[in-house]
Amino acid sequence: MSAEMGMSKRSLQRKFSVYLSSVPSFAIKQNKEAYLVIDGTYFPGDMCLVLYYDSHIRYTQLYRFTDKERFVQIKEDLLNLIKLGISIKSVTCDGHRAILKAISTAIPDVITQRCLVHIHRESNIWLRKKPVNQRSIELKKIVNLIFLIKTNNDKVAWIKMFEEWFESYKDHINEKKINSGTGRWWYRHKNLRRTAVMIKKAIPNMFHFLDNPSIPKSTNNLESFFGHLKDTLSIHRGLSRQHRKAFILWYLHYKNQTRR
Questions:
Q1: What is the pLDDT of residue 225?
Q2: Cβ-based burial of 222 (10 A; exposed 0-12, middle 13-18, buried ≥19)
Q3: Domain, as residue range, for 239
């Protein structure tokens, strides 16, 4: 950069310092049909960035720095977006409890779309790469069909397949092990049950995108966005916490500028 701009490194550092000592103003972009994607990502030092990304216009409507995704804060953000004139048609999220609770409390009539990539990824982690238990093998095969669902007929067939599997192994899924000495108990097949229950609870909100293609079916856009942000930030090691925040906000600002 120094060679390209004909400036010394010290001069460039002074210019960067001006940016990092201030933060840009953020502007809401009016939209009467906002299909939001909400997700959080974490940085070193217990710093969490929660973004409210308008997928159609590819614009970050709102952000929040916090220590983790919190129900009260997300609820407040959603209500503020509405007050500022954003008409939210749907919210796509990864199923974090705080986000789901905030949506159901602040905007209960808005469609919630669960991220299919997250459901698929979490299921495959819990069931493991090569499960040996026949029940887990069968469930893994069902989960891996998620991305082949393109029509409502596909959806009905897939749900039927899962429900039949669940009903067949319901007793196994809910089997408990009891410590005779303490009386304490736990589910014997923890990861299998964890996967099955997650899917069963998510099903009502997994396939809204089939009825409205404008609804994002995953949070992939934000995850790739976060990945590029972290790669860029990692180049500038040694920044203070305050300067890291400023860097992130300038990054968001200039990304938004390209969408105007």
A1: 93
A2: buried
A3: 26-115+218-260
Domain count for the chain, please give it.
2
pTM of the full structure: 0.90
Predicted pLDDT of residue 180 = 81
If asked whether residues 108 and 50 sit together in one domain, one would say yes
* Average pLDDT per 10 consecutive residues for the chain, totaling 260 residues: 74 73 84 96 94 95 96 98 95 97 98 98 95 95 97 98 98 91 89 97 98 96 93 85 91 84
Angle at 219 between CA 86 and CA 231, to 5 degrees: 105
Q: Are residues 103 and 123 in the same domain?
A: no
Q: Are residues 109 and 226 in the same domain?
A: yes
Please write down the long-range contacts of 246-250, taking CB distance under 8 Å and 24 or more positions apart: 246/19, 246/20, 246/21, 246/22, 246/23, 247/20, 248/49, 249/23, 249/24, 249/26, 249/63, 250/19, 250/20, 250/23, 250/24
